[in-house]
Amino acid sequence: MAGTVVIGCADQSLAYELRSQLAEAADVEVVGVAETTTEMADLVLQREPNLVLVHDLLGPEPVHQVIRDLGLRRPASVAIVVTSDGDPESLASAMDAGARGVLSYPLSFADVQQRVNTALDWSRHMESLLVSASSDGGSARGRATVVAVTGTKGGVGTTTLVTHLAWDVRRELPEHKVLVVDLDLEKGDVSSLIEARARTSVADLAKVAQDLSVRTVADAVFEHESGIHLLLPPDDVRDVEWVTPAAIRQIVGLLRQQYDLVLIDVGAHVTPVQAAVVEIADEVVSVVTPDLVSIRALRRTLGWWESLQVRKPEAVHVLINKASRTDEVQPETVKRLSPGPVLATVLPDMGHKLETAMNSRAPELVTDPAWWRALRAFGREVGVVRRPSAAGDPASAAPAPRPRRSGGRRERAAADESGSVAIELVALLPAIVLVCAVLWQLGLTGLTYVWTGYGAAAAARSVALGASPADVRAATLDAFPAGMRSTVDVDVATPRPSSVDVSVRIPVVMPGVLNTPWTATISRDVVREP
């Protein structure tokens, strides 16, 4: 069976020479050529090659650091460094990073053949070990799932989402080891939502990043009584300078080996530390709220990540939080304006239903099942929870009806009184009908205003997107029942539309039967993207 190879090299002539040497040296297939470290990491994770040939001058990230990250995320992909520097110190650095060999430039056919075949044998051996571990009940991936959650701006609910998701995963899968890392270094609020009194922080680990061990990390992590592990930011803001991208890479690399799930709250500000986490995370989620300020911030952040070559917009999950049917910006509008794919799961606006849990620092106090259902659906869509819960809903049995007794003085008395009750009901029937008719008409009037508001919002969105007058009217009519559409009037301000007025006659009894002389009118401003 032919081995697969990914080449990471920005020098086209060198990449061509590597292809030629590989074709002669071994039975391999080149499945991709990357010109940046970010592209190379994506190719390795997508194609899962046996061999990675990487030029030591590849950028923008340090090659040795990328090799170390890929070794943890894809253990069976063996790396070989191609270098023109035969300095022993450079060779030692490559081996320390996890490379299985070094090829010196100019290339020698015998050297290429020996290194490549040895690396392929090692890769196949690692594959067999991982498959064996999987068949014995272990994980073939051999690592934690690292999910980075970032907000587009303050107040979108990133920290609440991370802490409650960790809580729910532990409740659904008690055997899972779950870690929450708060990397919003200056304004982290994880300890404000879940009670924790940690004496050490991520800054303490960063100070000894070059000499980290499993015991060092375990000492820095706080274990909550729920079983969730927490790694918190430093109390002293002066310690933040210790937390560097290189240190975070080392820390996350070690955490992968100890947990099943690592949730990282990286805050809303684009910093070097945030960029490093976004690059090495398995999944990245950007939380937005249904408003144009948050959407503009999303587009700006994803553009910065792309320019820094840490994450492409299509590789970022966009999650809508605090959504409501009364919002002017609905999920469909967010999907049109978002540069990244929007998740199907939409988290509802819980209002004050989360307030008690937040004030008490106890997520379990949230009793609304709609919140936990939406949160669990989000987790499954992103891939946080890999298997569904085996627990089923218990069947509820209806209580058996009580046996009726025939005869008796009470039943005879009730039969005697039934005639008087019927007479009183007939006397009150006109008043009851009148009250019901008034209430029905009031309800129908309120519904008319609701439909008019939806129609005005749809018209404003269509005008903002540059639709023609016919399309604007069609979008407006879709918000009304068929019986009311003939009385709908759409008025768009000209010459440059800044607002839309929608009016409709208020119906009597039901839409399409009769209309009152009164009209419901709603105005909406046209919001245009800059």
Helix tally? 17
Rg over alpha carbons: 32 Å
Helix content: 40-55%
The CATH architecture assignment of the largest domain turns out to be 3-Layer(aba) Sandwich
Q: Which runs of at least 5 residues are low in confidence (pLDDT < 50)?
A: 136-142, 388-418
How does the SSE layout of this entry go?
Elements (H helix, E strand, L loop, with lengths): L2 E6 L3 H14 L2 E7 L2 H11 L3 E5 L7 H11 L4 E6 L4 H10 L3 E4 L4 H27 L9 E7 L6 H15 L5 E5 L7 H4 L8 H6 L6 H7 L1 E2 L5 E3 L13 H12 L4 E5 L6 H9 L2 E6 L3 H16 L9 E7 L7 H7 L4 E7 L6 H6 L8 H14 L26 H56 L4 H9 L11 E4 L6 E10 L5 E12 L5
Parallel strand pairs: 1-2, 1-3, 3-4, 4-5, 6-10, 6-11, 7-9, 7-10, 11-12, 12-13
Antiparallel strand pairs: 8-9, 14-15, 15-16
Helix pairs in contact: 1-5, 2-3, 3-4, 3-10, 6-15, 10-11, 16-17
Distinctive features:
530 residues; alpha/beta; single chain; 8-stranded mixed beta sheet; 17 helices; Rossmann fold; elongated
Characterization of the model:
The chain is α/β, with parallel strands linked by helices. It folds into three domains: 3-135, Rossmann fold; 145-382, Rossmann fold; 421-525, no CATH class. The protein has 17 helices and 16 strands. The chain has helices at residues 12-25, 37-47, 63-73, 88-97, 109-135, 158-172, 190-193, 202-207, 214-220, 245-256, 272-280, 292-307, 331-337, 355-360, 369-382, 409-464, 469-477, and strands at 3-8, 28-34, 51-55, 78-83, 101-104, 145-151, 178-182, 222-223, 229-231, 261-265, 283-288, 317-323, 342-348, 489-492, 499-508, 514-525. An eight-stranded mixed sheet has the order 8-9-7-10-6-11-12-13, sandwiched between helices. Strands 2-1-3-4-5 form a five-stranded parallel sheet, with helices on both faces. Strand 4 (78-83), helix 4 and strand 5 (101-104) form a beta-alpha-beta unit. Helix 3 (63-73) runs parallel beside helix 10 (245-256) and helix 10 (245-256) runs parallel beside helix 11 (272-280). Residues 136-142 and 388-418 have low confidence and may be disordered.
